[in-house]
Structures are given as C-alpha cells and as structure tokens.
Specification:
Blueprint lengths: L9 H29 L15 E2 L5 E2 L1
Antiparallel strand pairs: 1-2
C-alpha cells in the first residue's frame, strides 16, 4: 500500500520512502540493543552504601 499526499512530487515520495526505511532500521537496531542490555549478566556487588542527591520540595539539595 502506498500513501501519497496531495501535490507531492515523485522525488519527494521516493526520498520519504527511503527515510522511512532508515527509520524502521533504526528502530529495529534500538530494539536489538535493548534486548542485549536486558540480557546482561548481573554486575558485581556494590562496594559500599551510597546516597542519592535529590531536590527537596523547596528546591534545596538533599541526600
């Protein structure tokens, strides 16, 4: 199925289809990387306790 917009040129449609193919490839690559990330083995133990820095409701930094 080909979708066209009123008044578009054949050159525009060809370029848009090429871009769409690249976007599909990019999405597939991103999904592949996400799968690989989820399949990583567990990391090592955390050597010490630590605190996260955050912002309190008044906008001040806190631990």
């Amino acid at each position: 199925m080909t979708i066209t917009f009123p008044g578009e040129s054949p050159e525009y449609r060809a370029a848009r289809n090429r871009l769409l193919d690249e976007e599909i490839s990019l999405r597939r690559a991103m999904e592949s990387v996400a799968i690989a990330r989820r399949n990583l083995p567990p990391g090592g133990p955390v050597p010490e306790d630590y605190l996260f820095d955050t912002i309190d409701p008044n906008g001040n930094p806190e631990k």
